Amino acid sequence: MIYLDYSATTPVSYDVLESYIRATKDFMGNPNSLHSLGVKSKALMNSAIKQISDIFNILESEITFTSGATMSNNLAIIGTCLANMKAGNHVIVSKLEHPSIYQICNYLESIGFEISYVDNDQDGLIDFEDLKRKMRFDTILVSICAVNSETGVRQPLKMIRQIIKKENSETLLHSDMTQALGKVTVNFHDVDLASITAHKIYGPKGIGLLYKNSRIQLTPLLYGSGHSNMLHPGTPSVPLIVAFAKAIRLATTDLDKRENFIKRLNERIIAELEKYDGVLINKTKISIPHILNISFETIKAETFLHALEEYEIYVSTNTACSSGELSTSVMAIYNDKKRASSTLRISLSHLTTTDEVNKFLACFKMVYNKLNLLKKMD
Ligand code: PLP
Question: Given this model, what pLDDT does residue 96 score?
Fold first, then answer.
């Protein structure tokens, strides 16, 4: 098998799994319980939270565990909007967000919030002038994805935050950092709220995190018992938290070394794929090398995906969560419906080998030739 879909999800690393199993076996107490088993679990959980807060240089109280980035995005955006309804009802998002953000925006519109979509330039970079124009006295939140999941386009969050705060010091900045963590350096201090998830960084599925600056008030979306976190009540999963902490630690070390290696793989693939007629490389000056997006002019990306699957090669069309639709991200960058209608994402990891890339390229050639031949015979 050649797995080239690391942006959809990653395999759980052995060390992370080991932490999960150990915490499950040896720490069965509910961390909300008062007896010694609970106290022991709570101590382990707190040490994992401390590790995470040290890595990101944030307060332990600024961390809320969630079920994943989708829940983090919901809590960040809806929670901010509900808490700030008196200050305004305007939200700005980019055109390069994950589909979960647009679903949240649709919901917010249905309950009376107003959403503006900030433009980007031909590289996918947020149009700073348009952002300034769209900022209003009643803009309570701006949400900008750190790294776009389909094209790898990366935004300069620190600069974006400066622009926002200059226009309205009360406006909060949230960033979905799901695709940035583990690939490039992330700094939670560039934003007011940030979403991440474990399963994109070789951690388990079912746990994510919302960073929320301690000055900010959010309205909870869930109500229940358990006082360890007001924003996510209920019994915390100590094994998932411990495994997540381990995954974060592993994902934030050796970033440069990993990125340089991945860049070489990315360049090799691009150099080959550029040679094909009707294959367009959707890469801009600000794309990170881990996510490589291409468009087919005449072949259906889904057909290509399944043809590669016959060789046990796994890639994506659009994002895993919304396959089959027009790529909103490619559309936002190139404003070309044809280019956005048939896109394939090849996502790379430090686990990808040169041999896998060579096999992928050989199979790509066979599939391309076969599908083109079939097309000519149509
Ligand atoms: N945000 C981005 C940028 C993503 O790429 C994804 C997953 O593809 C999500 C959010 C959703 O993450 P989760 O599966 O943890 O809810």
Answer: 98
